[in-house]
Amino acid sequence: MFDQVSSRYDRTNAILSVGNDSLWRAATTRAVAPKPGERILDLAAGTGTSSAALAASGAHVVAADFSDGMLEVGRRRHAGNPLLEFVHADALDLPFADDEFDAVTISFGLRNVEDPHRALAELFRVTAPGGRIVVCEFSTPTSAFLRAGHRVYLRTAMPLLSKFSSSNAPAYDYLGDSILEWADQPTLAEWIREAGYEQVAYRNLTAGVVALHRGHKAARVA
């Protein structure tokens, strides 16, 4: 499905999010707080837009995705950037060594994984001791009024917008249901703790339409 929408994926995201995608990406980058010389995994990176924002700090970023179509667009778009490496990867069986990354992050991808618990366990495995995780994902709006409006948007307005903006509108039909059925903020925080991360916390973006979750892997005791 993602192969089919890769050519217009970023433009469609901007339209469907009413321009908020760039704000969410900036907040995620600040939460990851990349530093020069660090090695960072950006899982479900798509075309690498979020990865490029992380690499601007001087960190080496591995942009990993299951969609070859997305990776192809990303490699073409970011050709010549020595800090970006595009890798085909299955979130349930990451092709990386234990303790490899100073930070791991996934934006709007965990919801699409068949087994998010296993994906979080894999992310924990490849996080270096003392490293950190940031998950940016759609979540539950903070008020009943917003939740009602959000549901109407997902059920009616978004499918109409996708017909005009996407290269394959039917591929977006699943999106609204997947968001409405997704775990709320406290539930996802608990999943991240169960994976092994500590100091897990979250903050809402756009009144809870999106939430940023953060956690740390305990440093190795000397």
TrEMBL record:
Iron as UniProt keyword: no
InterPro entries: SAM-dependent_MTases_sf (IPR029063), UbiE/COQ5_MeTrFase (IPR004033), UbiE/COQ5_MeTrFase_CS (IPR023576)
Listed Gene3D superfamilies: Vaccinia Virus protein VP39
Positions with a binding annotation for S-adenosyl-L-methionine: T47, D65, D90, A91, S107
Protein name: Demethylmenaquinone methyltransferase
A GO term for molecular function: demethylmenaquinone methyltransferase activity
Methyltransferase listed as a keyword: yes
PROSITE patterns: SAM_MT_UBIE, UBIE_1
Its job: Methyltransferase required for the conversion of demethylmenaquinol (DMKH2) to menaquinol (MKH2).
A Pfam short name: Ubie_methyltran
Keywords, alphabetical: Menaquinone biosynthesis, Methyltransferase, S-adenosyl-L-methionine, Transferase
UniProt-listed Enzyme Commission number(s): 2.1.1.163
Signal peptide: none
Pathway assigned in UniProt: Quinol/quinone metabolism; menaquinone biosynthesis; menaquinol from 1,4-dihydroxy-2-naphthoate: step 2/2
UniProt-listed CDD domains: AdoMet_MTases
UniProt lineage: Bacteria, Bacillati, Actinomycetota, Actinomycetes, Micrococcales
Reaction it catalyzes: a 2-demethylmenaquinol + S-adenosyl-L-methionine = a menaquinol + S-adenosyl-L-homocysteine + H(+)
